[in-house]
Every structure is written in C-alpha cells, then in structure tokens.
Amino acid sequence: MVAKTLVQALLAVVAMVVYFTPSIVADRRGRRNVLLLALMNALLGWTIVGWLSALYWALHRDSPKKVDRIMRMQTRMKAHATADAIVARALARHVPPAKAIRITREPY
Fold first, then answer.
1. Which residues contact 53 (CB under 8 A, 6 or more apart)?
2. Which terminus in the chain has less CB density within 10 A, N or C?
3. What angle, rounded to 10 degrees, do the helices at 2-19 and 21-29 form?
C-alpha cells in the first residue's frame, strides 16, 4: 500500500515537471517574460498546441533589435519619471500649495 502511494506521488511529480517544462526552460534561459509564459503554460498547457507553443516561446530568442528597442524605451520612461519627480518636488518647495502647478506628461 505504501509502495503504491509512493509510486503515485512520484508519477504526479514527474507529470508536473513535464507539464511545466516550458516554464522551467524559460526560467533557466533567463527570458524577460517568464511570468507571462508560465501563465500561458498553466492555462493552455493541457492542450497539445498550447504546450508546444509555450515550449517554442521558451526556446525562441528575442531579436537583439527588439531587446535594444525595449531597453531604450524603458530607460527613456525612467528618465522622464525622474525629471517629472524633480520638477514636482521643486515646485512644491518654492510655491505655496494653493498655487502649485501640476505637470503631467502623456505616456509614450
């Protein structure tokens, strides 16, 4: 009885590892969007097409041009947020609160 339970537990662990192989591969390869891939794997992995597409996504590399564009955009957004915070803080210090001007910037 104990041996049967151990075999079933081992098979359950092996099945989970096989089911989440795309997520494990993506994590080991250092993909940017592991969480999104793992979510897709968890929700659609029970279908063969969903599991294979998640595995392809985990193994497929992003193009260097796309990664460079994303990094530039993130750096630009951080710089804008920092500049906005500095301006807002300077305005709050030198202008009475009733006359403070709120500066907003549209997202890019």
1. 40, 44
2. N
3. 60
User: Cα–Cα distance between 80 and 84 in angstroms, integer?
Assistant: 6
pLDDT in tens, 50-77: 999 999 999 987 777 877 888 899 999 9
Q: Would you state the structure tokens that stand for residue 80, as one six-digit string?
A: 């804008």
pLDDT in tens, 23-60: 999 999 888 789 999 999 999 988 999 999 999 999 98
Q: d(Cα 59, Cα 19) in Å, to the nearest integer?
A: 15
User: Which residues does 50 contact at the CB level (< 8 Å), separation at least 6?
Assistant: 40, 41, 43, 44
Q: How far apart are CA 29 and CA 41, in angstroms?
A: 16
- Residues 26, 38 contacting (CB under 8 angstroms): yes
